[in-house]
Amino acid sequence: MGTWAALAHQPAFPIGTMLLLTDGTVMCQSGGSRSWWRLTPDESGSYVAGTWTQLADMHSSRLYYASAVLRDGRVLVAGGEYSDAGPDTDTAEVYDPVADTWTSIGNPGWGHLGDAAACLLADGRLLAGNLSDGRTAVYDPGTDVWTATGTMAARSNEESWTLLPDGSVVTVSCANHPHAERYIPSTGAWIGAGSTPVELVQASSIEIGPALLMADGRVFCAGATGHTALYTPSGDATGTGTWAAGPDFPADAQGRLLKAKDAPAALLPNGRVLCVAGPAGDAAGDWPTPTMFFEFDGASLTRVADPPNADQVIYQGRMLLLPTGEVLYGAQTAALYAYQPDPGGDPAWAPAITSVPTSLGIDGTYTLTGTQLNGLSQAVGYGDDAQMATNYPLVRLTGTYSGKVRYLRTAQHSTMAVATGTAAVSTQFTVPNDLEFGPYELSVVANGIASAPVAVTVGLGSGRAEYLVVDTWTPSQDGALWAYVGGAWRGRVIGQSELVGVAQDLFSADAVDVWWDAAGLVTARAWSPAH
Predict the structure, then answer these.
(1) 494 — alpha (psi -120 to 50), left (phi > 0) or beta?
(2) Distance between CA atoms of residues 490 and 462, nearest Å
(3) Of 234, 351, 353, 393, which residue is 20 to 30 A from 62 by alpha carbon distance?
(4) Spatial CB neighbours of 342, under 8 Å, sequence gap ≥ 6
(5) Residue-wise pLDDT tens digits, 272-288
(6) Which residues of 221-260 are buried (b: 16+ CB within 10 A; e: fewer)?
(7) What is the pLDDT of residues 179-209, one digit of tens each?
(8) Residue 188 neighbours by CB distance under 10 Å
(9) Global confidence as pTM
């Protein structure tokens, strides 16, 4: 079984929701406040040795809300059971990690979102549910528009929604338990998905635990009752799928099953599920304490070590799967630990690169094509209070000689689907301008599992100038040559002796190609038709 490691630099704030940004850094909320912080791994790629920097505050505080990393790399947060914008707020906003800014967006028009159940669909839209009735809506980040979609048989409050390989979303109904439903994006309808063979929903609180798609295609559902169940999807747009009872959590000293009531879980790279449960009574206000950790291997639950911060109420816990395969665990205290699981897993689960440029320039954006770039599952679950899925590709460089690790920001993933098999999928990545030149090994990582590496070389940035400008101050002074290329101005000082040549060669040319490093322009080459 795995072991726990304390972060070398513990946070100075209580850990709330954590999200994995597409540049490999971790975005952590300070409790339920407006404040966010960034955890950056060290140059060896270690998150345990990572360091903290503060990010911009969002417009409203939020505790227990919907969240997602979008296909373009931005982050969406919506609602909040508790917020300075009001209880069960319907406000929503999007974070741009490049600009470090938050932008308010619209809402479904229900008057409240609160701790809405939500799931990012394969096409990149966000599906969200209403707290008080069966209405659902989808948000399109491309158009910034919410649109009403299918109506559920009962309200979706407290549910855990899981994206399936066929693009549908399955959930156990908390308000209509033990029945389950499935959302079909192609029709915008909710259909029946059978009934669980054991009760997963606590009747007094209508709470449930996490539901995670596993590598074998089944969904593992942990109950607030101490029971678990396994769902096998039908794989089509009409079937209900099948349910089977899973193993119960063990009993506490009073003979009560341990409960996963509003609890986190994560799919480990070895195929097991890291999950939690704890002792509690059956009343609505009875919350499991302390938090006890288990691994589920597809057949049985095995008790594993607890981190030092496991003494908190179970619903305060949050997990996040890292590209190293470790799982961060925080519990709304100023403490963060990384679970380091046993190795294992099937090599067939790994993403694979089929096409990527091998000569890269700083500031350049490139397309990587391959298979299974999004992993086999959304990989991290909790339920209506927090969504922290990691089913998107990260691009990792490792220095051939230095061993230094750097993640390159990805965006515009061709899909947000899971378990895409042999289908060709793609993402774009951008090379930062402070990256050292030289040879690297490039791999793509999905849900903590890395592809086989490809040898690449990083060098000068290059491109064709759209505009050229020469600054001169007086005839006796040097000037500067500026080229607008790749969405930015890049310049260098030029001496008086160069001014005539620049005017004759560059400004009379049909096209000018330029090369640059982090300091500015290095050289320019003019192209003119032969005479």
Answers:
(1) beta
(2) 11
(3) 393
(4) 1, 2, 270
(5) 999 999 999 999 999 99
(6) bbbbbbbbbbbebbeeeeebbebeebebbeebeeeebbbb
(7) 999 999 999 999 999 999 999 999 999 999 9
(8) 14
(9) 0.95
